[in-house]
Design goal:
five-stranded antiparallel sheet, 1024 residues, 3 helices, mainly beta, 65 strands
């Protein structure tokens, strides 16, 4: 028994000794690619042990590049973190994309006690962030917004952009291309020198394309199209300008290709214009108008404006009020255009065309005058920096205590060379301005600086350099004045002219100066929890991330194994990002989702832009993540035209859509056979290209046209195949509409005439099915439909301008019928011709250049028919009589008036009196064409025949001449009873009345001349 016990003890003793040897688990190996003391990312790893013991280890690092192992050595730094021993291993080599690194760690002893070796190994490929090592193609959904607003000394500034859409990413070798298509909004706010411009756009289409080579962003293109509102407000303290425009077409493009940054902007709009200036309660200027053309296009490249094209056209009403003066001008043409290319102004035009009225009234010491003038011509034209037209023509009448007429005529008399005060010759316009006064009333001297009754005529010749941008443009001034203060002479102004050439526009960052890029840099593939990596591949957007834990992320019908991560951006800005990255399978290294929040510094003033972005993996197109056994065939649903129809003979294009789905999302190609409509076998796409409107929505699209003569319902075959070569075929029907004939030439001789005139028409038309009939439809104007007759390819006939056609330019509508009975209408003809070699088909006729078919209808003045032989007996007491005049015009009468002369009522100013056809003021029947006016008969009305004048205007303001109408006044007796019951002959009475008139004139002259001078010292009309 004791022997047995000893033996057992001997056997057990080694076991007791062995149990005292320490043990440990495998260490964790993590990437530690963070900033080192030299300011670059370290090639380092952190090895974390199971506890805080001391460890004796061996480390082997194999770094292979292009199949060759690099020589390495390591520097170790030991530490203790959270009660666990760690060692940071710094490697002498640097990392590059495509390298392979294997780290092996052997633990040989713990706390100085040898143990059986414990090993850990990690193998990784050196890849680029969010780029699997395998070639791939995926689809993404993205939402991001950019807020770039700030305040400066000029006011509030802002740039806002948001995007929501889909995209896809494709990698082949070192090249990664990504495309994003969606919609969003765009807002800019700019304040400067009291002006504010606010552009707010709805972006119907936003493209954002990027190319990354070897992890570095080399190309980025942002392209957007949409519509919206442009609000421009300018207030300089005296004048307020407001333009509110509806932007019908907006295009914004910002591209970065290598080191070259280009920005392009184009806006087309129409809207309203208001310019107002109020100096006091009695003085103001106001322009109200309609902007018919607002066009702006700019192109900036690397901080230099290469192109700027501005066009502005408006119709406006100008009203200027200055105390007793009022100026009304209708601006039929308000045009401003300017185009700069490469810093050179290649086109410039400023033009004002208008007409209107001028009014003025003044009272001074119980005397008064009134001025009513007509502005017949107000035309200014500056073209290519030179004044071409400077015309003014004003005529008017003066009434009141001063009576008479005045006028102003201004025009360029000639253009030639002229020496200035220094003897230097310049090209000048000789602008001749003539003003005149014909004063036929009394006491004119008090109002016109003592000019008195009579005439004065002032002429000036302004020798003005033609360059509109120069200052002090008058180099010589010649004047000649007649009248009470006659004078003449000339002068040569000093320091004239001052040459001041137009300044080229400067580049502006209209689309913001922040590139919408994303972090990138080297990463280990696969990543594992605990890795810390500094992504420094994108300048100004450096992100240090740390992986957290493993998880699952359901995407694309698959449950991806991922590692979650989070990180912070470093640098002058701030921000953070988080997401998940796939760590297994062929897509390891690809982000399955990411959220970014960034504060990006920019500009010389250290402003900050705020960017928020969310991006999610939606589909995996390649590599396939299913097996052949799991694969399902594509399914083809409806095949249709997005527009419903397409017009034959190249008449239109349409988007053909095929709804193709695949539960495995591995569709390779979708093909449609267009040979039944004269096309080819072509590939459709779901990438937002060639008519496709949304990325990854299973609607594969292609833009088609029908170049031939096919019509009706046509069947097209569609074939879909997936990555495994599984094919599905289906068909769909489209409808092709027969195109009507097109006019290729129209000639109307003459193309102008009065209503009732006969015009000759010659026309040519084309249709692939032949032209069966051509006619002209005038039924909308009260005319007829006139068929033309074909002779040798020319369709000819005659038309009569209908009475119901309004004056001015009017469209002529043609009705055309082809050989198949297709009818169409047209009021234009095309300058293009069918071409058998045209790639769009032998029957295609371009509508890019169209010529309107129109004639000009002349308008005749109203016809005035006055009655003859009107006689009235002079009454003993005042009475009124009604006069009827027939006035005819097919356009209607807008105004009829009469100048009554001796029949004017007492107290009237002797001017024009409105005639009525509205059933009032003695008119018997309203709207019967008989215009009525009441005349005043008095016992003092002279005997004999007197004329009144009749004038009328139609609805188009065409004014007739003044038509005299004779009225005879008879008296039963030539004897006028006196106050003492005696009688005075008419001759005696006339003599007495003449003496009375002379007395009144003398008294009036004395009273007016004795009035105080108003002290103004100048001409009340602004003339010297």
């Amino acid at each position: 028994m004791p022997c047995i016990m000893i033996t057992l003890l001997m056997l057990l003793s080694p076991l007791s000794t062995s149990a005292q040897i320490p043990t440990t688990g495998e260490p964790e190996i993590n990437a530690l690619w963070i900033l080192d003391d030299n300011g670059v990312n370290a090639h380092a790893y952190r090895i974390t042990f199971a506890d805080n013991s001391s460890f004796d280890i061996e480390i082997d690092i194999a770094h292979i590049r292009d199949g060759i192992e690099l020589e390495t050595y390591e520097l170790l730094q030991w530490n203790s973190i959270e009660s666990r021993r760690v060692v940071d291993v710094f490697v002498n080599t640097t990392l590059q994309w495509g390298d392979e690194v294997t780290i092996t760690v052997d633990i040989n002893a713990v706390d100085g006690v040898p143990i059986s070796p414990v090993s850990a190994t990690r193998v990784m490929d050196i890849g680029t962030w969010n780029q699997p090592m395998d070639d791939h193609e995926i689809m993404l959904s993205t939402v991001w917004d950019l807020d770039q607003s700030y305040d400066n000394e000029e006011g509030e500034q802002g740039f806002f952009l948001n995007f929501e859409g889909q995209g896809w990413q494709k990698r082949e070798g070192e090249i990664l291309n990504s495309w994003e298509l969606g919609n969003g909004s765009f807002i800019t706010l700019e304040s400067t020198n009291g002006s504010t411009s606010n552009l707010s756009l709805v972006l119907e289409s936003i493209w954002k394309n990027e190319t990354i080579v070897g992890g570095v962003l080399t190309t980025q293109i942002f392209d957007a199209k949409g519509y919206g509102v442009l609000n421009l407000i300018d207030d300089d303290g005296e004048t307020q300008t407001h333009i509110l425009a509806n932007v019908s077409d907006a295009w914004l493009n910002r591209s970065m290709i290598g080191e070259d940054v280009s920005e392009r902007l184009r806006l087309e709009a129409t809207g309203m214009l208001n310019i107002s200036s109020t100096e006091s309660n009695e003085s103001s200027t106001n322009i109200d108008g309609e902007v018919s053309v607002f066009y702006l296009e700019t192109w900036d490249e690397n901080g230099v404006r290469r192109l700027q094209d501005q066009q502005f056209e408006a119709l406006a009403e100008l009203i200027i009020i200055d105390e007793g003066t009022r100026l009304d001008i209708s601006l039929e043409g308000l045009t401003s255009s300017e185009r700069w290319e490469e810093g050179i102004r290649v086109m410039q035009k400023e033009e004002f065309i208008g007409s209107g009225t001028f009014g003025f009234d003044e009272q001074d010491n119980e005397s008064s005058i009134a001025v009513n003038g007509t502005i017949y011509d107000f035309h200014s034209l500056v073209e290519d920096g030179q004044t071409k037209i400077d015309d003014i023509h004003v005529d008017g009448d003066i009434t009141g205590d001063v009576q008479g007429s005045f006028g102003i005529v201004r025009y360029i008399e000639e253009t030639g060379q002229q020496l200035n005060a220094s003897g230097v010759s310049f090209l000048v316009n000789v602008i001749h301005e003539e003003t005149w006064f014909n004063l036929t009333g009394i006491n004119g001297g008090n109002f016109f600086d003592g000019a008195g009754i009579g005439s004065s005529n002032n002429n000036t010749w302004d020798y003005q350099v033609v360059q509109s941008d120069w200052e002090n443009r008058t180099v010589r001034l010649v004047w000649e004045e007649t009248g009470p203060d006659a004078s003449s002479g000339e002068e040569f102004p000093e320091n004239s002219p001052v040459q001041n050439n137009a300044s080229a526009p400067e580049a502006e960052e209209g689309l913001g100066n922040v590139s919408i890029s994303r972090e990138t840099g080297l990463m280990p593939i696969p990543m594992i929890p605990g890795d810390t990596v500094r992504l420094d591949g994108q300048a100004g957007l450096i992100l240090e991330i740390t992986t957290d834990s493993v998880s699952f992320d359901p995407r694309d019908g698959h449950n991806f194994h991922v590692v979650t991560w989070s990180g912070e951006y470093e640098g002058d800005g701030s921000g953070y990002a988080s997401g998940a990255i796939i760590d297994q399978g062929p897509l390891k290294g690809l982000l399955s989702n990411v959220n970014r929040t960034l504060e990006i510094p920019y500009g010389e003033d250290n402003n900050t832009a705020f960017l928020n972005e969310s991006q999610t993996l939606e589909r995996v197109l390649s590599p396939s993540i299913v097996t052949l056994e799991e694969n399902s065939a594509p399914v083809i649903g409806e095949v249709y035209l997005q527009q419903g129809i397409v017009i034959g003979e190249g008449g239109s294009s349409a988007t053909l859509v095929a709804n193709v789905t695949d539960i495995d999302w591995n569709i390779d190609t979708v093909i449609v056979d267009l040979t039944p409509i004269g096309g080819d076998i072509v590939e459709m796409n779901d990438r937002g290209l060639n008519g496709d409107q949304s990325v990854g929505d299973d609607l594969f699209s292609i833009i088609i046209s029908v170049p031939g003569l096919e019509t009706g319902i046509i069947e097209l075959n569609v074939t879909a195949s997936d990555k495994f070569g599984v094919i599905t075929t289906a068909s769909g029907q489209i409808e092709i509409i027969n195109q009507a004939p097109r006019l290729t030439s129209v000639e109307i001789l003459p193309n102008i005439g009065y209503r009732g005139a006969i015009l000759v028409v010659n026309a040519q038309a084309y249709d692939g099915h032949g032209v069966g009939n051509v006619s002209i439809d005038l039924r909308n104007y009260g005319g007829q439909q006139i068929s033309l007759v074909q002779t040798s390819g020319i369709w000819a006939g005659q038309i009569i301008i209908p009475q119901g056609m309004d004056p001015g330019f009017q469209d002529i509508e043609f009705i055309l019928e082809d050989g198949l009975g297709k009818l169409g209408t047209s009021n234009v003809w095309y300058q293009d011709q069918a071409d058998s070699q045209d790639p769009r088909g032998p029957h295609f006729i371009s509508d890019e250049v169209t010529v309107p078919i129109e004639i000009k209808v002349l308008n005749s003045a109203p016809e005035i028919i006055v009655p003859n032989g009107l006689k009235f007996t002079r009454p003993e007491s005042p009475s009124t009589e009604t006069i009827e005049v027939q006035i005819l015009d097919s356009d209607g009468i807008s105004n009829a008036r009469a100048q009554l002369g001796v029949f004017a009522p007492l107290g009237s100013d002797g001017g024009w009196t409105i005639m009525r056809d509205d059933g009032t003021n003695g008119d018997r029947v309203a709207n019967d064409g008989n215009f009525t006016v009441e005349i005043s008969l008095r016992s003092s009305t002279p005997e004999g025949t007197h004329d009144i004048l009749i004038q009328a205007a139609d609805q188009y303001d065409v004014v007739s001449g003044t038509i005299p109408m004779s009225i005879t006044i008879e008296d039963e007796s030539a004897v006028i009873p006196g106050l003492d019951d005696t009688s005075l002959s008419t001759g005696v009475l006339a003599g007495a009345f003449g003496i009375l008139v002379i007395a009144i004139i003398v008294v009036s002259v004395m009273l007016i001349r004795n009035k105080d001078d108003d002290g103004s010292g100048g001409d009340r009309f602004g003339f010297e």
